[in-house]
């Protein structure tokens, strides 16, 4: 850990966050001989994987792909044990990377950056931490993550609950014992869908409060065999290149080349069943138009709805669990292990809080609008994140003339390529709004952004340039392009966190770039090749 008494002086780069983005930034910048320090609220590296320790937490991107590709020896040496890695294994991997490349010495943990001010005269940033320290750096990189600002809903009486309270996104470090306890879970997103089957195995009784049902496909997780690992490792560089340059999501799936409507109903059924049996998000690539054509989409949605009916024994519960009012894949598809089947257990109850909303949390549980009362010993909030902008805007960022980023983004985030926002010179964002970020294998997107940012800073050093800021017009055009790309898909039809719809008062705007990792990468490469077109240097 960084020596507290060390005078940071004027750093080349200050990095906010020590998750997968922060670690790779430190690695690349130090190898380019820049002075760099990173700051993280957590006690260790890992970012979102440091905080999300709830039972059942694992990644829904296959582990052979959800990992860094920048160092071939690293990817050859590391062995994943399961098809979908658990949170502890991903955290162990982040720690391994930090140790292997000696990165931790440049991270100051347990330190929250609260403010960042740009100083015109020195063309540098001053960061202020919750410890009252200030750090000066020529560049500031926000490596704050897209799903790192966990969110508690504002429910009256929440503070009066006398039992145990947990949030999936800020889980305690020591295991929580739910044995013999009655437990309530609010939420049925990806986190809840992973946690519920595990909680149900432990709790005396589990009550799930569902507002919106979600589509989920089985993970079919299993141990990776030495053969499977060897197959990947043999071709790793080529496969990684393909994921980066030829896929929309930065992940290799079995991509289809035809529309669902070109297949007969029998063919479709067989294809959906085959993918359902294989498991994972590969299901959503059964046809090439499932996120753009409503009729095609409906064929996949209908398949999953019938599966829910087949699995869940009680017809009323099955109906409640069935999404009907938004197209499948317009919210992040959930990947589960026995989620729907868990509702067949005698100790699990599903409560529809869309029809009968939670009125208040009480001393021993909660009460709904119809005055139905539920009591439990522990309450688990699986209520998600202030996604994409939350962690960024928790820092009071002040750019040119003291202007605030929160003010600038009041009607929705505006950033050129999702990398920089005009008026905030020398401040980069990794996987910022307007980039593929959460619609991709995020590690692929992180690597691309880190490489773009560090190459750009290096370019500036070589040219003796002190300041970079996006051109306001280039930003405007990019934001319009992000909106148009989204409008060509079904994604805006769901009230999803992609759209900011999970946060009361948050502007409804499609935040990630839907155009694809492959296309986005080409655009960024062209921008860089044209002397960073759309950016203004001084
Ligand atoms: P989420 O998808 O936003 O789900 C939050 C849940 O809480 C929703 O069911 C939501 O209902 C409910 N909720 C929120 N506020 C509520 C309120 N005031 N009253 C009642 N219910 C409320 O969050 P998440 O499950 O943490 O997942 C977020 C994202 O993280 C995922 O989409 C995924 O990208 C990522 N993630 C990935 C994995 C993985 O890799 N396997 C695991 C976990 C998370 P409404 O839908 O009605 O708002």
From TrEMBL:
GO molecular function, one term: N,N-dimethylaniline monooxygenase activity
Domain of life where this protein originates: Bacteria
Gene3D superfamilies: FAD/NAD(P)-binding domain
InterPro entries assigned to the protein according to its UniProt record, in alphabetical order: FAD-binding_Monooxygenases, FAD/NAD-bd_sf, Flavin_mOase-like
UniProt entry tagged with the keyword Flavoprotein: yes
EC number annotated for this UniProt entry: 1.14.13.-
Keyword flag Ribosomal protein: no
Pfam families xrefs: FMO-like (PF00743)
Family per record: Belongs to the FAD-binding monooxygenase family.
PANTHER family given in the database record: L-ORNITHINE N(5)-MONOOXYGENASE-RELATED (PTHR43098:SF3)
Protein's recorded name: NAD(P)/FAD-dependent oxidoreductase
Organism: Alsobacter sp. KACC 23698
């Amino acid at each position: 850990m960084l020596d507290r008494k060390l005078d940071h002086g004027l750093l080349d780069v200050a990095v906010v966050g020590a998750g997968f983005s922060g670690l790779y930034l430190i690695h690349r910048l130090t190898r380019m001989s820049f002075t760099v320090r990173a700051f993280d609220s957590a006690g260790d590296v890992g970012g979102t994987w440091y905080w999300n320790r709830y039972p059942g937490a694992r990644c829904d991107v296959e582990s052979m792909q959800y990992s860094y590709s920048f160092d071939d020896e690293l990817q050859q040496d590391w062995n994943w044990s399961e098809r979908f890695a658990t949170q502890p294994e991903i955290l162990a991997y982040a720690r391994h990377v930090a140790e292997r490349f000696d990165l931790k010495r440049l991270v100051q943990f347990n330190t929250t950056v609260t403010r960042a001010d740009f100083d015109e005269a020195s063309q540098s940033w001053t960061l202020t931490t919750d410890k009252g320290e200030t750090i000066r750096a020529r560049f500031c990189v926000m490596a704050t993550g897209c799903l790192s600002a966990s969110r508690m809903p504002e429910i009256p009486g929440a503070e009066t609950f006398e039992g145990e309270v947990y949030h999936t996104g800020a889980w305690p470090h020591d295991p929580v014992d739910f044995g013999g306890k009655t437990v309530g879970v609010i939420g049925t997103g990806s986190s809840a869908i992973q946690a519920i089957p595990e909680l149900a195995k432990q709790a005396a009784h589990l009550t799930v409060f569902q507002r919106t049902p979600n589509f989920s496909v089985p993970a079919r997780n299993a141990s990776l065999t030495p053969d499977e690992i060897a197959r990947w490792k043999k071709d790793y560089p080529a496969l990684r290149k393909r994921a980066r340059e030829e896929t929309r999501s930065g992940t290799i799936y079995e991509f289809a080349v035809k529309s669902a409507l070109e297949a007969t109903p029998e063919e479709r059924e067989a294809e959906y069943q085959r993918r359902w049996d294989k498991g994972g998000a590969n299901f959503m690539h059964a046809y090439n138009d499932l996120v753009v054509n409503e009729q095609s989409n409906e064929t996949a949605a209908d398949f999953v709805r019938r599966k829910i009916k087949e699995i869940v024994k009680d017809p009323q519960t099955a109906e409640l669990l069935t999404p009907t009012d938004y197209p499948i894949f317009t919210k992040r598809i959930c990947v589960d292990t026995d989620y729907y089947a868990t509702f067949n257990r005698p100790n699990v109850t599903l409560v529809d809080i869309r029809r009968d909303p939670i009125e208040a949390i009480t001393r021993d549980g909660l009460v709904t609008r119809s005055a139905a009362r539920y009591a439990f010993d522990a309450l688990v909030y699986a209520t998600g994140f202030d996604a994409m902008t939350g962690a960024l805007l928790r820092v009071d960022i002040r750019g040119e003339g003291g202007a605030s980023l929160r003010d600038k983004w009041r009607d929705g985030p505006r950033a050129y390529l999702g990398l920089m926002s005009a008026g905030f010179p020398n401040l980069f964002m990794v996987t910022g709004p307007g980039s593929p970020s959460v619609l991709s294998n995020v590690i692929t997107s992180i690597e691309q952004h880190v490489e773009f940012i560090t190459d750009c800073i290096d370019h500036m050093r070589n040219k003796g340039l002190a300041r970079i800021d996006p051109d306001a017009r280039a930003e405007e055009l990019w934001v319009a392009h992000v909106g148009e790309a989204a409008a060509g898909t079904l994604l805006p039809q769901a009230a999803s966190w992609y759209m900011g719809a999970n946060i009361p008062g948050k502007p409804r705007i499609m935040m990630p770039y839907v155009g694809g990792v492959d296309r986005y990468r080409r655009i960024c490469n062209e921008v860089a090749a044209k002397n960073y077109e759309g950016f203004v240097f001084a």
